[in-house]
Amino acid sequence: MNAFSALTAALPRLQISIDILCVILPPAAFMSFTGIGFISAAAKILSLTRKRASFDKCARQLAAFGLVWGWLLLGVCRIWLYLTQNSSAKPAPFSGLTELSWLLLACSVLFISLYYTLWKFLRNLPALHIVLGIASSLTACAALVATLFTERLAATPQSNLNGIHSLGDAVSLIFNLILSEQHISFWNALCCTPLLILAFSGGAGALWLFMRRRYDDFGRDHYNTMIRWCAYWARNAWALLWMLFLIFSLLQIRRSWQGDALAMQDITIQAARLLFWLVPCLLWSFVCRSAVALRHKFTLLAALCTASTFMLPYYLAVTDAGML
């Protein structure tokens, strides 16, 4: 037993904290990359329709973030797949689905790389340039959905996997699992995914613009305006997500009430969760309403960190280990 194993064995809470971070950080990082092509393409469109160079600069900065973050994710995922390829007892189609997720992510990184690299060459072909940015996010969305299906399959008991001999069998099993009424938590998580993508991409994009202040000297007005613009994406997406979460909570309370299993403690827990998930929306709202968004570095960081904690119930819902 090495020193780290001995430390985690002596401090079980440390092991629990590490496990939670391993569940929270990967999907949050993935979603931060997934939607950045959409937001950058939206800024590019606004630079053409409103004739404002600031939006074009913002779009290029966000594309640079997608380029850096995408290649980092791609490398980390490849290393993780290499280290875990012999540690899983799942059938071969499971590995095929995992590799498919990585290939889709690689395509997305390729599109965002072309989107950023060909910025000047495609200046006279703005439609094609915008399509590259959108294609990056679309393929990243496909990679994310494939990853969610893979995680759902990984949570399936081994007894249900004995009849799987091909990738088609694995996909059929996944659909049979998630289409049953008792697996509604997976669909709840899937409904939240588009809003989570926009919220994390907007929040991460705003924080990236703040970090680029020292390297891209476009003036304080540019950064104050564009950081607020990215924060609007994050705030609005999270507000819609919170309303969706409110609907899920009310439906869960209704099901418990109909089954005569509703307790006052359940209502209190649901109310506390709703209030906590409102915090990121409030923090991003402070940035949106501020005339000097550059002063809100820690507000942006706190909003993104608080929003990342939503990934724990999200992951539990995907693996059918809990409800949103």
From TrEMBL:
It comes from Candidatus Desulfovibrio trichonymphae. Signal peptide: none annotated. This is Uncharacterized protein. Keywords: Membrane, Transmembrane, Transmembrane helix. It comes from the Bacteria. The chain crosses the membrane at residues 16-41, 62-81, 101-118, 130-149, 186-211, 231-253, 274-292, 298-318.
